[in-house]
Amino acid sequence: MKDWYQKTEEEVLEALHTSKEGLSATEAAGLLASKGENILEEGKKKSTLQVFAEQFRDLLVVILIAAAVISMLSGNAESTIVIVAVIVLNAVLGTVQHEKAQKSLASLKSLSSPTAKVIRDGQKAEIASKGVVPGDILLLEAGDMVVVDGRILNNYSLQVNESSLTGESTNVDKEDGSLDAEAPLADRTNMVYSGSLVTYGRAVVAVTGTGMDTEIGKIASLMNATKEKKTPLQVSLDQFSSRLAMVIMVICALVFLLSIYRKMPLLDSLMFAVALAVAAIPEALSSIVTIVQAMGTQRMARENAIIKELKAVESLGCVSVICSDKTGTLTQNKMTVKDIYVDGKVCQPDELDLRSQLHRYLLYDALLTNDSSIVEGKGIGDPTEYALLEMAGKVSLSHDLIREMMHRLEEIPFDSDRKLMSTKYQLHGVPTILTKGAVDVLLYRTSHIRTSEGVRELTEKDRENILEQNMRFSENGLRVLAFAYKEVEEDHVLSLKSENNFIFIGLISMVDPPRVESKAAVADAKRAGIRPVMITGDHKITATAIAKQIGIFEKGDMAVTGAELDAMTDEELDLNITKTSVYARVSPENKIRIVDAWQRRGNVVSMTGDGVNDAPALKKADIGVAMGITGTEVSKDAASMILADDNFATIIKAVANGRNVYRNIKNAIQFLLSGNMAGILSVLYTSFMALPVPFAPVHLLFINLLTDSLPAIAIGMEPAEHGLLNRKPRDPKEGILSKEFMLKILVQGALIAVCTMTAFHIGLKQGSAATASTMAFCTLTLSRLFHGFNCRSRHSIFRLGFASNWYSLLAFLSGVILLSLVMFVPILGKLFSVAPLTASQIGIIYGLAFIPTIIIQLAKIIKENRK
């Protein structure tokens, strides 16, 4: 049996039960039901039971199990039950968190999943890639990710990168027609395969395989090789936790030996050591950081910034340079034809006259060197191209009718190096090459000009007039395309050599006005210490005009073209980099060089892009930002963040969110570590002073895993402060656990420890060791709950306002209720080793617990009043 690449076009279509008009919606739905969605089956995932079992491999859990064993040996059954319950609960929470993360990852993948352009019911349509079925007619263009296997029916200079399948990095030239002999996958030049990338040209393809029936489906295990990496912050905290654990284990051993030396019973000595270990290790830290980051990414997604990598959340807070594309990001990406220059005059689109052959040729050129379409009022394709279709509609010229009457014979697609697109048609029975492109490129390939009086040689004066008009258009921020044509012989084959000796027809200028919010977003960026830079393929003057309007280009700034950049040495670029606000007519290599130059200065760079050629620069940048609407699948794959609305203002919102997420994480860490520091200092104090152990392990577990978790999450929900964008970006080299930060943790922990130990001593004087332990436990719990308000911000609670974060109030109340239940419900009191207290003792606990917060808030108020 012949393989797909060996069959003729007719055999392929017959075998697939389709035609070049594509499938009907009903046929596609039936095939989707029988063949399944076009998705790859993922590799074998860990079962929920496996995930649950893995929760017990953590060092903390080992310590807790040791604590449970020691409690059981000491005859403390209630304490043993609570510790075991906490261990199981912790494992359950970890398992639930893992399952939620998997679901979150799946939903994130669906948000940025690729789309495909197919012909359904004879109409061009854009659908989700998972909806493509065998028999669909697929339309491929440069920048598309091939999402199925397919046989090429019509080829227009198609080049594909198949490195994901073949390992060959060079692009493969494709062709149509059948191959006679058997051929390996790499030599099947009339086929395209899922997972490959269209780098040049376009093609019409019959879909032959989807999902697991594709070539990449046969090696799907390669697609599942990617593993989630920990973020730099998580790595830093993991290192901190492991080092802390080792230090604590050493101190625990010393405390145990000291207790034995003082003739303390063995089990009591062990309980002292275990209490210290449990007090020291921040059990909830890793979970809290992940939760805060996840909440940050969800908030960003609601604001149209889809974060693909958690590390991007952290890096966003450090961004100091944003290199942004102009079209669609800073502007509306709603191209509209404004002015037309033809026959030496400027006219409006509705003034074109179909009775004039000159005007008709200009319209033919605009419609036929054009791959876009308008379906149900929605433009599909390049915005510049469907603006030309809308222009023709103003004089009642149907692009569908013209394309139906005139069939494209050959073409050379547009590319960023040539800046031209050429097609070949039969116009009035004469083979004619129609070309459009950049004025400065096409004009110097023309030898004649067409006017209302006919065709004549292009003079130097004509050239000057055209360039002068182009300059006037560009100075007003208009994008200008030049149009030309030439008649050729019947046997002429269209090639790059054909793009010379054209007859000039005219210029069409289009406007893509700045987004309303761009000016304010640029101002916000500058206020935040972020340098916005425009990088565009447009003309230098056009780009500068738009940059001036929105505030990127200011007096004294420079605008540089790609050619001028090529002429610069790295030293010259480094010298001018801070003065240059606009880069025009740039190549992909230019973009990488610009990013590299800023990074050499120590800046954290964000780069936006939407094309295939932008992918290297997006990878090079610290934060690659792809366009969700106009972006190619390759650019989205290379980026760390996707803008669902292609809007520059969304980047600034994401930066503000990134800064806020980092600030909230740091504040949550401060809350957890300062509270743990209080527990450590308290246990060490009683150990060295030969006093009874102040806390049972269940006390510390209750604090760390229940009452502390809620305020920490609430701190992670703290809204962004008004002046967050008034500060300079943080230094990415600055670790989260700086000397100043650690000193703050030590001082605040010591304050809480002093009040806790005061309550402990009062308990010893007024009652038994059990009373003292209960008073110390309640004071530590309450003071840490109050401390949650201190850690919300560097500002005092009076400036923030209690109501600005309702989550913190709810977390405090929940913690107080949980503590009250333990204190006043006898069964729980017995479980958590709590002794009954008098009303005066409870009053002392509340008074002492509130003292650290009073001191910290007074210090903040004094500091605020000094400024």
Give a structural overview:
The protein is an alpha+beta fold and 867 residues long. Helix content is 49%, strand content 17%. The protein is built from 32 helices and 26 strands. Strands 10, 11, 14, 15, 16, 17, 18, 19 and 20 form a 9-stranded mixed sheet that branches. The termini are far apart.
Structure in a nutshell:
The protein is α+β, with helices and mostly antiparallel strands and 867 residues long. The protein has 32 helices and 26 strands.
Distance between the termini: 84 Å
* Number of helical stretches of at least 4 residues: 32
C-alpha geometry: elongated
Major sheet: 9 strands, mixed
Radius of gyration, taken over Cα atoms and rounded to an integer in Å: 34 Å
How large is the share of residues in beta strands?
15-25%
Share of helical residues: 40-55%
- Stretches where pLDDT is under 50 for at least 5 consecutive residues are 221-229
What's the mean pLDDT score? Answer: 84
User: Count the strands?
Assistant: 26
Main structural class: alpha+beta
Task: Provide keyphrases for this structure.
elongated, 9-stranded mixed beta sheet, 8-stranded mixed beta sheet, 32 helices, 867 residues, 17% strand, 26 strands, alpha+beta
Q: Layout of helices and strands, plus pairs?
A:
Layout: H1 9-15, H2 25-35, H3 48-54, H4 59-73, H5 77-111, E1 115-120, E2 123-128, E3 137-141, E4 149-161, H6 163-166, E5 172-173, E6 191-192, E7 197-209, H7 215-218, H8 232-261, H9 266-280, H10 285-302, E8 305-307, H11 311-316, E9 321-324, E10 336-342, E11 345-347, H12 357-368, E12 373-375, E13 378-380, H13 383-393, H14 399-405, E14 410-412, E15 420-427, E16 430-437, H15 439-442, E17 446-451, E18 454-457, H16 460-475, E19 478-487, E20 502-511, H17 518-527, E21 531-535, H18 540-550, E22 558-561, H19 562-567, H20 570-576, E23 580-584, H21 588-600, E24 605-609, H22 615-620, E25 623-627, H23 633-638, E26 641-643, H24 648-688, H25 697-707, H26 709-716, H27 739-766, H28 769-790, H29 797-800, H30 806-824, H31 826-831, H32 839-866
Parallel strand pairs: 9-21, 9-24, 17-20, 21-23, 22-23, 24-25, 25-26
Antiparallel strand pairs: 1-2, 1-3, 3-7, 4-5, 4-6, 4-7, 8-26, 10-11, 10-20, 12-13, 14-15, 15-16, 16-19, 17-18, 19-20
